[in-house]
User: Which sequence fits this backbone?
């Protein structure tokens, strides 16, 4: 992908395989436990996390390097059932040691392409924590717009109640 030099050449995004779970859990567990970006309980069990990240979504993907180390993951699912099912929702997590290398951007762009191929017309992020400045910049850079603000909708582990944003993008073929 343009603008990422060698990172894009070295990273491949593929569907999640059950054998990836141990690596994936090592990536998502500290993020859930931190209580700063996802609404899952910081005390979430591994089994509950499996349901949230693998069972509930339409599909789960992993970003891997040339050595097939899992560096990041995302899921895609309908944001709402039936008459709202043409809008998808995604969640993304990059391994702490792989951040700031363009992997989240690659996953965001990949998810949009896959969403289109699955028949989704738009993508919506329901609860972007206002203190998550890195994610906000990333989503805006990738064409998402803030369409709503939910006052004190997220109970941040360090900052208490903070605002959350709803972000939306119409997908273009």
Assistant:
């Amino acid at each position: 992908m343009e603008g990422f030099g060698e990172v894009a050449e070295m990273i491949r995004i593929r569907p999640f395989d059950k054998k990836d779970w141990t690596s994936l859990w090592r990536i998502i567990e500290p993020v859930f436990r931190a209580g700063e970006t996802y609404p899952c309980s910081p005390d979430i069990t591994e089994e509950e996390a499996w349901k949230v990240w693998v069972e509930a979504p339409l599909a789960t993907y992993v970003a891997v390097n040339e050595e097939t180390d899992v560096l990041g993951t995302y899921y895609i699912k309908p944001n709402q059932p039936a008459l709202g099912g043409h809008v998808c929702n995604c969640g993304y997590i990059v391994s702490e040691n792989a951040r700031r290398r363009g992997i989240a951007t690659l996953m965001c762009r990949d998810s949009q392409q896959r969403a289109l191929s699955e028949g989704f017309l738009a993508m919506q992020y329901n609860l972007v924590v206002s203190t998550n400045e890195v994610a906000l910049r990333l989503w805006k850079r990738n064409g998402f717009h803030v369409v709503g603000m939910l006052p004190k909708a997220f109970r941040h582990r360090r900052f208490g109640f903070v605002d959350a944003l709803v972000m939306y993008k119409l997908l273009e073929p």
Residues 1-6 have pLDDT under 50 and may be disordered. Helices lie at 6-10, 21-34, 46-55, 103-117, 133-141. The chain has one domain: 6-170.
